[in-house]
Design brief:
313 residues; globular; 0% strand; MetI-like fold; 13 helices
């Protein structure tokens, strides 16, 4: 196990290095010039060149990349071109709403999806199974921003039950915090629920056809323990795998959801930075998101040994 962890950590370093190169080149080779945005539309070329020199954008790409990578390795993600604040400080200021939204969405999605998947597998072929599958297809097909606007119109504008937008820190009270996160979590989690529910159903159907399940039923074991203790645990590997893969879907959805619900999180920070061509912010946030995704997948791989004792690394 230790040797496997060391190999995975070394491969993680390689992956992050490739991601860093890709992020840097993708931004700097794409059209657009932050210096031109800073000086405005009426600026002369001399003024633009002066700003580029001040920001170091006229240096060769290799020099800019080495300077940025050296800062990242020392924990410095650079300084925002427009706000002149350290990128790490801007991320820390925005991290609570994003972590809160991701956490509530993940908990809601996993609980609902696993329950729906188990129920559909137990009632396979019935109207319950068909209803869950149709609901999953619809949830996965409708974009997050469409679901978000529909939820706002129904629960905020028409019924007035929940806030339209914004975020309340958890320090202001749990009730205000969860009220502001309810609609964004549902909008972001529906596609995630659909994905996990379909995989849970398929994995449960495979396990429920095994001999040891029929033996447990023949011995008179109740339906609940058969489904939860015998079947779900043995179907856990593909379910945990798709949960880990879905983290990428969750990260991408956070950016859209925070924009729709006007949540001042890291996703909104990225959107604003893209519109202004603020390279340091985009590079720093994207690198952190990539690192989170790689670490989550490492944790998922290690969890396999807990779910299935036959798996050894």
């Amino acid at each position: 196990m230790l040797a496997f962890i060391i190999r995975r950590l070394l491969s993680t370093v390689l992956v992050m290095a490739i991601v860093a190169v890709f992020i840097f080149l993708l931004l700097h080779l794409s059209p657009g010039d932050p210096a031109a945005i800073i000086v405005g539309d009426n600026a002369t070329q001399v003024q633009i060149d002066a700003v580029r020199k001040q920001l170091g954008l006229d240096d060769p790409l290799a020099v800019q990349f080495a300077r940025w990578l050296g800062g990242v390795l020392s924990g410095n993600f650079g300084t925002s071109i427009f706000s002149h604040e350290p990128v790490s400080k801007l991320i820390v200021q925005r991290i609570e709403p994003t972590v809160s939204l991701a956490t509530t969405t993940l908990l809601l999605a996993v609980i609902m999806a696993v329950s729906f998947g188990v129920l559909a597998a137990w009632k396979v072929g019935t109207w319950v199974d068909r209803f869950v599958m149709v609901l999953s297809v619809l949830s996965f097909s409708v974009p997050v921003f469409v679901v978000g606007y529909l939820l706002i119109y129904l629960f905020s504008i028409q019924l007035g039950w929940l806030p339209v937008q914004g975020y309340a820190p958890i320090a202001d009270g749990f009730t205000a915090w969860i009220r502001h996160l309810t609609l964004p979590s549902i909008a972001l989690g529906l596609a995630y629920v659909a994905l996990i529910a379909r995989i849970t159903r398929a994995a449960m159907l495979d396990v429920l056809s095994e001999d040891y399940i029929r033996t447990a039923r023949a011995k008179g074991v109740a339906t609940g323990p058969v489904l939860m203790k015998h079947a779900l645990k043995n179907a856990g590997v593909p379910i945990v795998t798709v949960i880990g893969v879905g983290v990428a879907l969750l990260i991408g959805g956070v950016v859209i959801t925070e924009t729709v619900f006007n949540i001042p999180g890291v996703g909104r920070l990225v959107v604003d930075a893209i519109s202004q061509r603020d390279y340091p912010i985009i590079q720093g946030v994207t690198l952190i998101f990539s690192a989170v995704y790689v670490i989550v997948n490492l944790i998922v791989d290690l969890s396999y040994t807990l779910l299935d004792p036959r798996i050894r690394y």
